[in-house]
Write a structure and sequence with these properties.
Structural class: alpha/beta
Shape: elongated
Radius of gyration: 27 Å
Number of domains: 3
Keywords: DNA-binding, Transcription, Transcription regulation
CATH topology of the largest domain: Rossmann fold
Protein name: LacI family transcriptional regulator
Helix content: 40-55%
Organism: Streptomyces liangshanensis
Domain HTH lacI-type: 12-66
GO molecular function: DNA-binding transcription factor activity; transcription cis-regulatory region binding
CATH superfamily of the largest domain: Response regulator
CATH class of the largest domain: Alpha Beta
Number of strands: 12
CATH architecture of the largest domain: 3-Layer(aba) Sandwich
Strand content: 15-25%
Largest sheet: 6 strands, parallel
């Protein structure tokens, strides 16, 4: 016999609740919005029907009918495998949740087409705002989202080709300070490991590295520079290449934590007394047993500030429509943290 009850996984509707409670659909709606004019006995009957049927309001449809947003903000990042992004996401969420918003996260894998499609999908779903860590300088999709009235905040790199609030890390200053420390310890052959040159942080950190060498009267030798590594395995291979040079570097500066971890593995395998310095602190950095200096900063604060910028921009847009406030830029400071004893330097 055919099933006349409809699909068993169909979601119950307001009309289903009204039929079970023997009231009108309008009464159900009034109970769901806590209308104090509904008789207590009637309200109790409706809530019992809601519980029995497992009814849940479609908050997105309801918000759209009321002319409000969806209560969602999009967070677009490049590499969820990197703990930096989980900390950033926690920072964002800790702010937006206090304003009745929920963050939805999308991972681009450093691929522009994926990022473009993800942003377009978020705009199509009518998110209330977007926080993005762009994968490159082509940000036309973010500019288009902003032009459609979606508040956009850019994190870890500045906006390109359009105006937006942004929050950055002191990439140049942190890299300069770490390299300066290696130079102060007597190192003159220092290798550089980093993500692709298209990544803003990698370029800025290479600039800080090079400026520190120049300040010490040393050139940046391309033979000691490796860019393009996004995963620890790639970084380990790149570090191994440097360590196998006829005159290998006595120290390595790594421009993010994935490269630092890969370099550590390569140094361990090679058995060399190579000193490491890297951008981004990470868990267990103090247990590696090698001399390691890291450029540390509060990645949670980076996310919190991005969340604050977005909420402020959303508030400005609703309270002063047509009168956008000046765009804001915040830079998160860095500090140097040293782990392990200083390594002996082979002066040859």
């Amino acid at each position: 016999m055919p099933d006349t009850q409809g699909p068993r996984d169909a979601q119950p509707t307001v009309r289903d609740v009204a039929g079970r409670a023997k009231v009108s659909a309008m009464t159900v709606s009034r109970v769901l919005r806590d209308d104090p004019k509904v008789l207590p006995a009637t309200a109790a009957r409706v809530r019992a029907a809601v519980a029995e049927l497992g009814y849940r309001r479609n908050e997105t449809a309801r918000s759209l009918r009321l002319g409000r947003g969806t209560g969602l903000v999009g967070l677009v990042v490049t590499n969820l495998a990197n703990p930096f992004y989980s900390r950033l996401a926690l920072g964002v969420d800790s702010v937006v949740v206090r304003h009745g918003l929920k963050a939805v996260i999308g991972n681009t894998g450093q691929d522009l087409d994926t990022e473009r499609a993800l942003v377009e999908d978020l705009v199509g779903r009518r998110v209330d705002g977007i926080i993005a860590v762009p994968s490159g300088a082509d940000q036309r999709h973010l500019a288009a989202a902003a032009a459609e009235g979606v508040p956009v905040v850019v994190a870890s790199r500045p906006p390109e080709g359009f105006g937006a609030d942004c929050v950055l890390v002191d990439d140049h200053g942190g890299a300069f300070a770490a390299t300066e420390r290696l130079l102060g310890a007597g190192h003159r052959r220092i290798g550089f490991l980093g993500p692709p040159a298209a990544v803003y942080t990698s370029t800025e950190r290479l600039r800080g590295f090079s400026d520190a060498l120049a300040a010490a009267g040393l050139p940046t030798d391309p033979a000691y520079v490796r860019q393009g590594q996004q995963q620890t395995g790639e970084a380990a291979s790149a570090a191994a290449e440097l360590l196998a040079l006829p005159e290998p570097p006595t120290a390595l500066f790594c421009s993010n934590n994935r490269n630092t971890i890969g370099a550590f593995r390569a140094v361990r395998r090679a058995g060399t007394p190579t000193t490491l310095a890297g951008f981004d602190d990470f868990e267990l950095a103090d247990t590696l047993g090698l001399p390691l200096t890291v450029v540390a900063y509060d990645s949670d604060e980076l996310g919190r500030e991005a969340g604050r910028l977005l909420v402020t921009r959303m508030t400005d847009a609703s309270t002063h429509p047509g009168k956008p406030a000046p765009y804001r830029r915040t830079v998160v400071p860095t500090t140097l943290v040293h782990y392990g004893p200083p390594a002996p330097l082979d002066r040859d």
